[in-house]
Amino acid sequence: MTVQPIASPSPSPTPAPTPEGTPAPSGMPEGLPPQFWDSAGGKVNLPDLVKSYGEISAFKTQHDQRVAGLPKTATDYKIEVKLPDTVKLPDGMTFKIDDKDPRIPAVQALAHKHQLSQETVTELIALHAQSEIEAHVAAEASIQAEMKKLGENGKARVEALNAYFKANLSKEEDEALRPVIGNAAAFAAVEKLIAKAVTQRVPGNVLPEPAKPVALPIEQRWYPPTQQKAS
Fold it and tell me: From the CB of residue 18, how many other CB atoms can be counted at a distance below 10 Å?
């Protein structure tokens, strides 16, 4: 008697793994996120799936609209100062964008690379301007505190030194010495140096020699030039 071998049953197909790397529940469509599969009922949770699809679709639409409204190139971004209505510029302080500022192309390139909106760039510039205002106000407060150390005639002394700088220095030198006015001790030291320079020789200060009378020949001293020609 011939014994026929019993064929082993073919193995059932293995479900495709879920995106998380864990095997998908039996019967779940391939690629379906597990949160949208009703394992108890063995079916797709359509209400949650439709809701999630709608949210994703709305987000993509908003994203596409935002990107479409962005400046087309980096140089299309406007670099301007627009302060909030709640922020006021201190007296004597102004903001002017320097078109040759090397930071401008860098900011424009960064904004274009990260798809920032024009509104976002403008707000960032406004934040920078506000920090400059705060620094200016703090510096002015420090100067006023130093001014009090100069006494009651401190304002007149500052005005006199400013006038002296402008009359005797170049614009660059004048600006370089601006910090002196913000320090009472340095201010007084400069005043002393100026006082010495005006009244006596000091190192680095060469006063011109007084003009010496020209020694004329005796005939020019005795007779005027007109008489000499007549003779």
Answer: 17
Q: Is the CB of residue 136 less than 8 Å from the CB of residue 166?
A: no
Q: Give me the residue label for tokens 């614009």.
A: 171
Q: Residue 205: its pLDDT value, please?
A: 47
Which run of H or E residues covers position 219? helix 218-222
Q: Summarize pLDDT for 76-90 with one digit per residue, the tens.
A: 999 999 998 888 888
What pLDDT does 210 receive?
Answer: 53
Distances (CA, A) of 128 to 100, 113, 156: 18, 20, 34
Is residue 143 within 8 Å of 187, Cβ to Cβ?
no
CB atoms within 10 A of CB 127: 12
28-38 confidence digits (pLDDT tens):
999 999 999 99
- Residues 201-217: pLDDT tens digits? 545 445 455 556 566 66
For 148, list phi and psi in degrees, rounded to 5: -65, -30
Collapsing DSSP to helix, strand or coil, 6 comes out as coil
Where do we find the tokens 């009651």?
152
* 154 has pLDDT over 90: no
Distance CA 32, CA 172 (A): 71
